[in-house]
Amino acid sequence: MTNANLLPLVPLLVVFFFIMSAASYLLRAWAQWVAFAGAIVAALLGFGIWQVDFSRPLWLLPNGWGFDLMAPLERFGYTLQLQRDNMPVVSLSLLIAAGALLLSAGSDRSPSFPAVAWLLTGGYVALALIVAGPKAPVIAAPLALAMLAAVGVFALQGGAVADPGGPLRTLIPPLLAVPLFLLGAWTIDQIPLNPQDASLPQTAGMLLGLGLLALMTPFPLHGALSGAAEIAAPPALLLVSLLRQLAVLHLTARLLFAYPFVYQQTDWPIWLSWLGLLTTVWGGVAAIGALNAGRLWTYAALSDWGLIIVVLAAPGLRSWTLVLFLFTLRVISMMTSAVGLTSLQQVIGSLSFDRLRGAGSRMPWSSAALLLGGLGLAGFPLSAGFAAHWTALLTLAEIDWLPAAVVLVASAGVFLGYVRLTRMLFGRLEDRSLARENSLRAALALAALGVTIGVAIAPQLTSDLISRALAVFG
Amino acid sequence: MINVFFHAFGTLFATGAGVLLLALMTGVVVIAGSWRLALAGVVLIHLGSASVLVHAHNVPGLVAGGQMMAVVICAAMLAFAGWLQPYPVSVRQSGNWPLRLLALLFVVGAWWFLDPGYILPFFSQAETGLLIWTALCALTMLSFSGSPLIGGIAVLLWSKPLYALAAVLLPGSGLAAVVGIADLVIVLACSYLVLLEPAVNPRSPRALVRALPRLPQPGAARPWGLMRRPLQPSPAAIGAQSAAEPSLQPALQQVAVLQPAAEPADFDTQAGMAPPLSAQDAEQIGAAMLPVSPQSGDGEETAPV
Question: Order of strands, edge to edge, in the sheet holding A58-60?
Fold first, then answer.
């Protein structure tokens, strides 16, 4: 075995994403099969990377060839390398992409979605893999997130001639964060030159903290996804929102680790608490009045995201564990909901409430997946999100009962929104020509329901995933 | 060579009058309703800003040249996308010019009242004021309009302070080049959205649905509650059509009685089922299906419900 037989993994990964994207685009005439095959490939790759043992960083093949898992890729001053610190993020990104591709295999709304999905996933994976650069990688991260938001626009719009307001607004938060990060980087550079100046860390912390807040898209910067919910296919919305939120959580962890003055010497935790509470309340209030199942889904997800922001206000091992717990169950709940939404949108053509009237009697399993996944985002008992929400509420109540009560009221708002949706779905069927769900859709919805209920009954199933991810975030 | 070029412009723009001119141009970009004028203005503003950076802050001409190249390509992309869409491009226009003028006056007043006296490191007070003014104008444009074309122009305006900060505060980091790449990708996305924005008048010869007929028709989306209805033809046209195909109208009336839904997408019923067609409806559809005169277009119009 010589070094010549060792292939570096990271450059291969980069090339692989481009090839998959190009191949998916060229074969878009068979979009559903391409999406299905892509889902299998992404899942295999995600599980494979999850199994990487960093004490033995070589994968040897029977023919004598092998992969050097930790070989870095250096281009334009930036170094990309698979490390223990970013491996769970890479793996989770791939698994999220696998879920979105699997969902899109059941929909023919956007034939080019698999190609964009691969490009987007490759971008987020590359962002997670950057370990060094001319400046600290976290400083350039908002620019990278702005570019990835732009790629996400193609997935959200999906080639439909429709109102572009929602996808357009996804570009705004990262653009707002960029100047704050640039100014923060300059201020950080001045700290070693003036170590006595106590105002420099405060200024840098304030700038970076504000930039992070913009990237977290709390209320009132939240409108992009709910705006896009009426036109975007649920798999696209799922992919764009979850990948971005995972990247922002990873960026937060890296930033707080590198520059602890962001939360030690500023009012950042207070801003986070207030904006998180406002976000969760707004999600709940908006969910009550939603008239579109896609919008309701995004408002429920917004309320859940607000809770994650509130929990982040006190960074530490305990809160990161809770954040990861909430995020993992959020992924499961959103995917379960997306299974139902995708089926309903595919069959009915719209997700507005008046078009969904009585659809539950013809598509019971898809409707159940939609409802149980959505209720999981509100932390409803016997749903996937319950354990994490309950733990978060107890943690908040230990500090102050009022925020916990506010979160509970917001969750009740989301619950009311889903009660309205349930009344619509299982009301009187007026469109007698509505097709029944086929066995494939029913099987997919049943599988999603099985995962959701399994996690709801035994949330400890996620403990291995969370404990390994804590190596990155904790 | 490239340094000489930017230094030559720098002698014009890196003065009090030059900075004032750039600030005025930025204001005009916001107030002017024409996207063509706004795009040209943004390119000029970037030229002025890049010249000031080279002349006053010794930024390498290559960096400024890269900035200009990225901005010109972005402007060209937006212009091409805007050209493909018919005028007016978007129903999501950013109000009329007096409204935008009032908004800018409010911004100026608020800034003058709140003035925190912040000066960016390495920049003069006038330059700091210009950069903040540019950023505020970009935010005003983004806030007032949901049009991707205006949004793309606002992104270009917003990127001006980013180039300045990256090139002057963080030299050698390569972030100015990354800002340029980000500009290109973001404006590409905006151009894509411009092309897919439902046209106000889908019958225009430059509407994308005409240029690229394989794309889904805008009637399917109906984002503002618009729906496509058959146009009531003129009596003369009906007479001409009846003379050309006298047997079609009675046949259609017969079909209307027997078949409930000819074009379900054109009827908005709560249950999603189309009601049986009346004889009058059938007549209208029949008229819309028949060849029409050039004056009456293709027999359809977009009308609010």
Answer: A6-8, A66-68, A58-60
Q: Are strands A78-80 and A66-68 parallel, antiparallel or unpaired?
A: unpaired
CA distance B256 to B276: 7
Amino acid at B289: M
CA distance A250 to A86: 9
Count of CB atoms within 10 A of residue B92's CB? 19
Is it true that the peptide bond before B276 is cis, omega within 30 degrees of 0? no
For A164, the closest of B182, B197, B215 (CB atoms) is B197
- Give the closest-approach CA distance of A322 to chain B in angstroms: 34
Cβ count within 10 A of residue B224: 12
Residues of chain A in contact with residue B271, where contact means CB-CB under 8 angstroms, are 357, 430-431
Residue B175 dihedral angles phi and psi, to the nearest 5°: -70, -25
Give the nearest partner residue to A153 out of B161, B192, B215, using CB atoms: B192
User: What are the chain B neighbours of A143 within 8 Å (beta carbons)?
Assistant: 175, 178-179, 182
Two tokens at A387?
């354990």
Distance from CA of B255 to the nearest CA of A (A): 20
Residue A219 to residues A153, A213, A223, A261, A411, Cα–Cα distance (Å): 21, 10, 8, 25, 16
ipTM: 0.94
Q: Hey, is A433 helix, strand or coil?
A: coil
Answer whether A135 sits within 8 Å of B170, measured CB to CB: yes
Q: Exposure of A466 by Cβ count < 10 A (0-12 exposed, 13-18 middle, 19+ buried)? A: buried
Are the C-beta atoms of residues A366 and A343 closer than 8 Å to each other? yes
Q: Give me the count of residues in chain A.
A: 474
Q: In terms of Cα–Cα distance, which of B69, B62, B53 is closest to B130?
A: B53
State the DSSP H helix or E strand holding residue B226, giving kind and residue range, or none if neither. Answer: strand B226-230
Q: Do A186 and B169 touch (CB under 8 A)?
A: yes
Q: Which residue has the tokens 């935790």?
A: A269
Please indicate if any CB of chain A lies within 8 Å of the CB of B281.
no
d(CA A244, CA A150): 12
Altogether, the residues listed in chain B come to a count of: 305
Token pair 């001119």 in the structure block, residue: B21
Instruction: Determine whether the interchain pair B182/A143 forms a contact, defined as Cβ–Cβ distance below 8 Å.
Output: yes
Testing the interface with A: which of B134, B196, B208, B226 to mutate, by most A Cβ within 10 A?
A: B196
B81: chain A residues, CB-CB within 8 Å: none
How many C-beta atoms surround the C-beta of residue A192 within 10 A?
8
Contacts of B192 in chain A (CB under 8 A): 153-154, 157
The answer for residues whose C-beta is within 8 angstroms of residue A26's C-beta and 6 or more apart is: none
Burial profile A435-464: b = 16 or more Cβ within 10 angstroms, e = fewer: eebeeebbebbbebbebbeebbeebeebee
CB burial of A139-177 (b: ≥16 within 10 Å; e: otherwise) equals bbbbbbbbbbbbbbbbbbbbbbbbbbbbbbbbbbbbbbb
Count other Cβ atoms within 10 Å, centred on residue B116. Answer: 7
CB-based contact, B161 to chain A, within 8 Å: yes
Element (H, E) at B296: none
pLDDT by residue for chain B (305 residues), tens only, comes to 889 999 999 999 999 999 999 999 999 999 987 889 999 999 999 999 999 999 999 999 999 999 999 999 999 999 999 888 755 555 566 778 888 999 999 999 998 888 778 899 999 999 999 999 999 999 999 998 888 999 999 999 999 999 999 999 999 889 999 999 999 999 999 999 998 888 665 555 545 555 554 444 444 433 343 444 444 444 544 444 444 444 444 444 444 444 443 333 333 333 333 444 444 554 454 444 443 333 333 333 333 33
Angle, nearest 10°, between helix axes B16-31 and B35-57? 160
